[in-house]
Specification:
- The protein has helices at about 1-5, 35, 80-85, 90-105, and strands spanning about 110-115, 120-130, 130-140, 145, 150-155, 165, 170-175.
- The protein has about 180 residues and is of the alpha+beta class.
- It has a domain at about 105-175: Golgi alpha-mannosidase II (Immunoglobulin-like), CATH 2.60.40.1180.
- Strands 1-2-3-7-5 form a 5-stranded antiparallel sheet, with helices on one face. The protein has a two-stranded antiparallel ribbon with strand order 4-6.
- A hairpin with a 6-residue loop joins β1 (about 110-115) and β2 (about 120-130).
- It is elongated and about 55 Å long.
């Protein structure tokens, strides 16, 4: 949510939109030249260049033979097809965030002002053309008391945000 509510050009790398992290690559499967030249230092890019898991079929729908790099370990459940079918998925959250960014010029231009917030919470206002939005991001694993008012436009947790609080890892955009 932070990336898509700040000014500038957001960059989503393949797999970000479905929540894939870096994949551990066994030494015998390394392909990146930098990692091959200096093994074990962690300079290689293979961990973030694994095949995109499209579905739960063999080889994740990426092809008909074993891919050159291993798939993320949870690809049978964390793949595009599974997330397409789940309205509460990371993929659908990214789509809602992108649609909100397109609809709200304040999210891709205009000004930004930090707002005081409790520890573990990032809060800021975005404004453009008289339209002001507030973004609150709880970076903790706990519910945090936050005095907020406004109309919720989007919550990362889904459902209606709780007035006066941000749930664990919740982000909200308010009008």
């Amino acid at each position: 949510m932070l990336l898509l509510t700040l000014r500038g050009t957001p960059t989503l790398y393949q797999g970000d939109e479905i929540g894939i992290g870096e994949v551990p690559i066994p030494a015998d499967r390394v392909r990146d030249p930098q990692e091959l030249r200096q093994p074990g230092i962690g300079l290689g890019r293979d961990r973030s260049r694994t095949p995109m898991p499209w579905d739960a079929s063999p080889f994740a729908g990426f092809g008909t033979t074993e891919p050159w790099l291993p798939l993320n370990p949870d690809w049978p459940v964390r793949n595009v097809a599974a997330q397409e079918a789940d309205p509460a998925s990371m993929l659908h959250l990214h789509r809602r965030l992108l649609a909100l960014r397109r609809a709200e010029p304040a999210l891709h231009g205009g000004t930004m002002r930090l707002i005081d917030a409790p520890a573990g919470v990032i809060a800021y206002e975005r404004e453009r053309g008289g339209r002001r939005l507030r973004v609150l991001l709880n970076l903790t694993g706990e519910t945090v008391a936050v005095d907020w008012t406004g109309t919720p436009l989007l919550s990362t947790v889904g459902g209606t945000p709780r007035p006066g609080a941000l749930r664990a890892d919740e982000g909200i955009v308010l009008a």
